[in-house]
Request: fold
Amino acid sequence: MIAIVAAVAAETVLLRQSLSHCEVRRCGTRELFLGSLFARKVALLHSGIGKINAASAVTALLEIIKPEVVIVIGCGGAYPNSGLAVGDLVLASEEILADEGVVTTQGFVDFATLGFPLLEQGGPIMEQRFSADPQLLAAAQPLLTAAASADGANLAVGPMVTVSTCSGTDQAAQTMVQRTGGLCENMEGAAVAQICRLYEVPFLELRGISNRVENRDLDRWNLPAAARIAQKALMAFLRDRHTPQESA
Reply:
């Protein structure tokens, strides 16, 4: 079974319309949509916005099922110099918890520098960064690149940044890029990645770009387009993942 997690229902409209034999059960206090996509069993969950909602939702989910992978899907804001435009896609190579740390007179100091691990459950200590599953990442990249290209979009692979306070100015965006080296910003991904690491479940994240991270101007945003391209690309990945490729 594949688990798909999004913050809000607007980010999964196409997915839910495409689910066959769909039934709705409870997952703690949330609705869990169970069905099939391209003959693959799927569990789809809306977490709510933010790290606390995301962590609590995925914890509840992983206490009742053990999926082969958790895939986060949704929208994100592209940082300056990322080369990303509204309607493009980002596949996370890793997720970064960007807010956890201390503000000092010398600037922000993160937990990695402070030496306070956020997770020590098995394997190496995880401080701020949580990597996507490398095998799934390698398998997903060419399929998602092709899916994006078919829709006239570009796919970038690189770090995503999770924040509690979104960057709504040019200066805030530049500061976050300098701090993290990230491509885009969201509010849930790293929390999901940390819980997946705790439960030893592989993690992937795919987001459509809804806006550039700059001086906030909602007239330049396109949330529906970002949600749509992410869902279409994910469905193409699920459809083609185990399809034998023709020889050249």
